[in-house]
Amino acid sequence: MQQLKYWVWLSALSGVGAITARRLVEHFGDAERVFLADAKQYEKVDGVKTSDLSVLMSKSFDRAEAILADCEKMGCHIVTFFDERYPERLKNIYDPPIILYVKGNLPNIDAEPVVGIVGTRDCTKYGLDATESISYKLAGCGIIVTTGLAKGIDSAAAKGALRAGGRVIGVIGSGHGVIYPPENKELFEAVVNSGAIISEYPPKTPAHKAFFPARNRLVSGISLGVAVIEAPKRSGALITAFRALEQGRDVFTLPGNVGAISSEGSNLLLRDGAIAILSAEDIISEYEMLFPDKIKSEAGENKYSGENNAVCSKRGLQADIVRCETDTYKKEIDNITRVEYIDVEEIIATFDGDERIVAETIKLNSVHIDEIISKSGLDASRVLTAITMLEIKGCILSSKGKFYSLKKTP
């Protein structure tokens, strides 16, 4: 408990984002040493801005102690960045939180086949039925389903997995003790009993629209792949898909009716290289060879376990050859932001808020993400959200090494 208060103090500092907090603990070795450091020592840490110094020099434990008291009352535990329970998958994304607040039993995520299921809140019956069916079969075969527990597709994914007796990991955009949406109270309780709910926000933190795009990176970050069921052109589900691609995860999508607003975004993903979901088997077959002891067929066996380990999947001859050569193959999906080039100045003039600030920072240059964060004056989560929205709008190009440039006329 004594050590935890230093981690909570650092994670709860207003204005110090996830990237800066991680750099601080990696530089000093642990959160206690961060707390004990002075301004001159902070200045030596890459990425620490002048505006961070006054915040870091606030050495009060008042808020940290209140948060720890709330955790004890609510029965949620804290997993810190250096805790062995903290998933390596999540550590390896660009901006992992230094603390996870957990209710329930968090599995060893790195040893488990975890698949994210996301989609629009304003979904159709087609989307709901497909989601429940897919998640039911995934969970029944041993795959852990993770989702944001919002209404619509998220809720259907959790319900389908629970109905199969499977495990669910919910990732929420609020603190524990805040049920959002309120009608999901029983669903939250069922998820805690079957798996876990995680949040990077302290207990009692109200839901806020800015938290949901940030939450999306955790859904994809703990997953091997993300299934987008129904998504309009501009939606949180598409943000999750882009974050998944950024993190090197697979992206699956359910084909929808051409012209259906609820499927416009997911159909574009399909056009640009996402793996089509015609049945749950399209997801299961991607991972059953990697997890022969975890993923079971409906008959109760994994066809790649034991003597059948050399048997190839049925997704095409070329894919079969790759799969049979190694158990640690890597799948790649084409860049999904193929759109026509448009004038840069026109782009900038149409943006507001953070998107405009980021666009002005980039202009005609190819700019590294760290430089965008530094020059824009925005924290990392706001910059990444703005970049994702610019990607969705087809106004930004990304290149290797996390460099970004605005699309311009040739």
Beta-strand percent range: 5-15%
Helices, by number, come to 19
Q: Could you give a short account of the major beta sheet?
A: 9 strands, mixed
**Cα distance spanning the termini:** 58 Å
Sequence stretches where pLDDT stays below 50 over 5 or more residues: 306-342
Structural class computed from helices and strand pairing = alpha/beta
Shape: globular
The CATH topology of the largest domain comes to Rossmann fold
Query: Could you say how many structural domains there are in total?
Result: 3
Structure write-up:
This protein is of the alpha/beta class. The protein has three domains: 2-74, Orthogonal Bundle (DNA polymerase, domain 1); 109-283, Rossmann fold; 344-406, Orthogonal Bundle (Arc Repressor Mutant, subunit A), CATH 1.10.10.10. Helices cover 43% and strands 11% of the residues. The protein has 19 helices and twelve strands. The protein has helices spanning 2-11, 18-28, 31-36, 39-43, 50-56, 62-74, 88-91, 125-140, 153-163, 185-194, 211-221, 236-246, 264-271, 281-287, 317-325, 344-350, 353-362, 369-376, 380-392, and strands spanning 77-80, 99-104, 114-118, 144-147, 168-171, 196-199, 225-228, 250-253, 275-276, 367-368, 396-399, 403-406. The strands form two sheets. A nine-stranded mixed β-sheet has the order 1-2-6-5-4-3-7-8-9, with helices on both faces. Strands 10-12-11 form a three-stranded antiparallel β-sheet. α12 (236-246) packs across α19. The longest helix is centred in the N-terminal third of the chain and has 16 residues, at 125-140.
